[in-house]
Amino acid sequence: MTDHTIYSESREIQTLYRPQAEQLGMELHHRSGGLEGQVDGDICQGRFQANPAGPHCLVIWHDITFLREMDFNEYAVTDYACLTLDESPASNHAPYGLQPCTKQEGNMVSLVQQAGTVTNHMPAGFRSRTRSICILPDYFMELENQWPGQVKGLFDAFCQPWPSDIALAASTALSKFAPGRQGQTEFLIKAHIDLLLARLAQSSSAFVQSHEPSHDRDLVQQVKAHIRSHLGGDLSIDRIAQSLYVGRTRLCLAFKRETGTSLARYIREQRMDRARHFLSSTEEDVAWIGRQVGYMRPSSFSAAFTRKTRISPIAWREHCNRVE
């Protein structure tokens, strides 16, 4: 693998293609604003291309023939939405372990890929030829921040059937993303995707307005109750999502929509509020208070408290005592 990368790519973007390329022994090169690769080895033969559409979206095209049976692993550090047009030969033997998806137009499917590792068992002779748009959660969050109230529910829409006209438009847009195509700039690719999402947002708004708000409110209330009862324990977003049987991205988007703040920030604020309460109402030492709000090391608690309040825990307590 070369050191060439799509500009300032994030780890979330890298995991959409780099581990897969390494498994296939494919070397990637930076060309024409994207990445291209070709492989002709004992494992497989074929080509690959990836083009960015901003920092949170990647368009991927590949045509790979597996020469021998293998377990092919895909890994993602976060949930992401995916739209895929499958142009593989109809004579293919079906691979095992493919993810559940929603059939849209023709051979096009959409899905929300959960974070973690997925293993697909590829038979010898299997040819995989697909075009995909992979969209990270931050893409949807930026749209919601830029157009409040106008683009709700887009992430979840990738788990639902689309109106036929939008599905057809999406299939047409995907078919235009081809390796080596002239004028295939990042600006134009992103414009196609933004237009597609705008149409999807318009069509799904009625469904979102009638179904999503009450569900989001219930979910956020469950999250807040969970946080209150677990302030001294593991409050990682992944753990909360697992406890409530909901995807991490679904959880974060719903919480931001309902509260206007991120889940991570809310957790920090709740911990500091509880810490201030203990400092002003008890004589317990700083180490004990830190443990009650999830900090096993006193130094970590003191640093977090000082960042939030601009004053150390001990100084806060002294100030409270003077006021009283």
UniProtKB/TrEMBL annotation:
**A family per Pfam:** HTH_18
Cross-referenced Gene3D superfamilies: Homeodomain-like
PROSITE patterns documented for this protein:
HTH_ARAC_FAMILY_1 (PS00041), HTH_ARAC_FAMILY_2 (PS01124)
Domain HTH araC/xylS-type: from-to ranges? 221-319
The Swiss-Prot or TrEMBL record annotates one GO molecular function as: sequence-specific DNA binding
Q: Does the keyword Iron-sulfur apply?
A: no
At the top level, the lineage of the source is: Bacteria
Task: Give the record's keywords alphabetically.
Answer: DNA-binding, Transcription, Transcription regulation
What is this protein called in UniProt? Helix-turn-helix transcriptional regulator
Q: Which organism is it from?
A: Bifidobacterium apousia
Organism lineage: Bacteria, Bacillati, Actinomycetota, Actinomycetes, Bifidobacteriales
